Amino acid sequence: MIRPGKASLWIILASATTTVMAGSIIAPVLGLMEEGLGVDPASARLIITTHGIFIAVFSPVIGLLIDRIGVRKPFILGLILYGLAGSSGLYITDYWLLIGSRMLVGIGVAAVFTSNTVMVLKFFESSRRNKVMGWRASSNSVGGILWPLTGGFLGTFTWHLPFATYLVCFPVAFLAIIAIPDIQHDATRPASESGAGKESIISLLKRTPVIFTAYGLVFMANILLYGMIVFLPKLLEPFGIINPFYLGMFISVHAIVSTVAGLVYGKIKAKSSYKTIVLIAVALWTAGSITISQAFASWLLLLAIALLGFGSGTILPAVSVWVGELVPASFHGRMTSYITTFIFIGQFLSPVILSPIASALGINGLFMVLGATCAFLFILLLAFLRR
């Protein structure tokens, strides 16, 4: 096990904040981009969603690359690509060129996000690993609060200026070149793992089917998150809350509580098993979704969002370390890359899956369905994990 310095830890946490800024930076200026580029709203939304598809598709490729050549080079090159492609919006004025740059942004984020997870698994052990993974999840949530505010402020000058925020990737990459060790040739890797690479992904999944549970949980976490983001404004209208600032405050509660959950995750894991943690998280999702469906006051919606946030804030670090401990080190890149894939597939599919339900049953009915689904998931997990 390579012992990184404090600088490596800070680079891991700093880069974790950047992985959520891909879309959140430019979301506040979406309307201005429609006007500036001369496109319709549906086309403008592709600027925010295109990178997500490329993250989902390229994460397994990045994972395989990490297992073949180590984590350092994909991490640094991912940061550089992310910075170059993201900041190109400063001067691009053609819609399709901008879409092309967003594709490259997705590949860069896939490299940074997956490498970030693998570095925590490689650099830290035992309780320290769980604590750092919790901090990483908190950093991710902090980015979800910080970067939209930054993008909104810069967008008051011109819709191009928020793209300058992506330039932060370059100093992080420079520090990574100096401080991140090359763990491609980890001399401390157990000899028993020397032949692990000969095992196929399929045989590994057959041997440890609980990994599918982990992937399903991060998928569900993002279905719920984006369902809340998309439909919350309509839920708040009956309570007279329509000001964008107050809507943003309600949504930010999820990120704030997720941040707190990540900070205390290490202490939670010290007293609980992964199975207990995920069961509690799903129970919180159930309670939060049902509370949203029955809320008769805005404070109840606030409570429900907090429940969803705490559940999701513990799921990502738990699943990331759990998968890392279930598989040989030679599979860390590939198996954790699928976590990234399921995260962004969940984000992309959430409106696609939930909108027809909302149209048929109303938004309150939708969240009752989500609550019932989470309750059913809890029962299935309880039976499966006990076995």
Kindly describe this structure.
The protein is mainly α and 387 residues long. It has 2 domains: 1-124 and 151-185, MFS general substrate transporter like domains (Growth Hormone, Chain: A, Up-down Bundle), CATH 1.20.1250; 198-387, MFS general substrate transporter like domains (Growth Hormone, Chain: A, Up-down Bundle), CATH 1.20.1250. It has helices spanning 6-18, 21-24, 30-37, 41-69, 72-87, 95-123, 126-154, 169-179, 201-207, 210-236, 244-271, 274-294, 298-326, 332-386. α5 runs antiparallel to α6, α6 (95-123) crosses α14 (332-386) and α7 (126-154) runs antiparallel to α11 (244-271). The longest helix is centred in the last third of the chain and has 55 residues, at 332-386.
The gist of it:
By secondary structure, the chain is mostly helical.
List keywords for this structure.
mainly alpha, 2 domains, single chain, 387 residues
The share of residues in helices is: over 70%
Span between termini: 33 Å
Per CATH, which architecture of the largest domain?
Up-down Bundle
Under CATH at level 1, the class of the largest domain stands as Mainly Alpha
- Helix-strand pattern: HHHHHHHHHHHHHH
Instruction: Report Rg.
Output: 20 Å
Number of strands: 0
Number of helices: 14
Our count of domains comes out at 2
Beta-strand content: under 5%
pLDDT averaged residue by residue: 86
Low-confidence stretches: 185-197
Task: List the SSEs and their pairings.
Layout: H1 6-18, H2 21-24, H3 30-37, H4 41-69, H5 72-87, H6 95-123, H7 126-154, H8 169-179, H9 201-207, H10 210-236, H11 244-271, H12 274-294, H13 298-326, H14 332-386
